[in-house]
Amino acid sequence: MQENETGILYVVGTPIGNRADLTPRALETLCGAAAIVAEDTRHVQRLLADTTARVERVSLNAHNENERIPRLLERLRAGENLALVSDAGVPAVSDPGGRLVAAAHGAGVAVRAVPGPSAVTAALSVAGLPANRFAFEGFLPTKAEARRTRLRAIAQDPRTVVLFESPRRLKDLLGELAAACGAEREAVVTRELTKRFETNRRGTLGELAEHFAAHPEEQRGEFTLCLAGAPEEPAESGAATVEGEAVLAALLEELSPSRAAKVAARITGQPKNALYQRAMEWSGAE
């Protein structure tokens, strides 16, 4: 099926806090769509509050996507144009919209981007940390074992890492990162991006943990954290490098220490014995 035989799924970026950041193209796309697909349809009502448009709204979330996606694909195949939005920012990044986009591609439906604000790139732009290479982690797992594994990988990652966190868990996250990465690692905590009370606080993880522990009144709003990457250090002969340890940490999520070390050595060319020793050190530390 050729793309021009179907409708178009528009993936529309929306404001992350300041309604004035909704672009004219985004508004035109939303008003012209047969339906707007959103996790929370109340968000759509706010977006269109200043217009006379009456566009159908369809909720799509983790509880109903198995039922809704096939119906939406039928509408797209029939020639209708649909607009996908998230509660804030760019759809399909840390929200359920990604499955609809993948399904549209699989069905031969045209997918088009209508770019807009993103908390990830907005935070990076004001952090003052290297942004030529970065990793987006979103919200870390809440289960202890999965969380420890992810923290180990982040600690070894040489790229700037971007994370989201809720107000009630921010203090704990800063403490965990300080323990995993070292209290002297630089980071920037951004609160309420693009909103009236936006703040950007930079310091070491130790300093930031102390600050927010002492100022509970600042633990409100939406938080994005940018963490400086692990310093690149020349590896000693026979020792695992930062790259090797990052790969090892990821593999340990699914494999035993011996198997993870073997696969990591094959991928990175690092010494298998050194990688295995590091895996056992991490296991013993837990």
Automatic annotation (TrEMBL):
Residues 239-282 form the RsmI HTH domain. CDD domains: RsmI. Keywords: Cytoplasm, Methyltransferase, rRNA processing, S-adenosyl-L-methionine, Transferase. It catalyses: cytidine(1402) in 16S rRNA + S-adenosyl-L-methionine = 2'-O-methylcytidine(1402) in 16S rRNA + S-adenosyl-L-homocysteine + H(+). The keyword Transferase applies. It comes from the Bacteria. The keyword Transferase applies. One of its GO terms (molecular function) is rRNA (cytosine-2'-O-)-methyltransferase activity. It holds the Pfam family RsmI_C. It is found in: Cytoplasm. Its EC number is 2.1.1.198. PROSITE patterns: RSMI (PS01296). Residues 9-209 form the Tetrapyrrole methylase domain. Catalyzes the 2'-O-methylation of the ribose of cytidine 1402 (C1402) in 16S rRNA. Belongs to the methyltransferase superfamily. RsmI family. This is Ribosomal RNA small subunit methyltransferase I. The gene is rsmI.
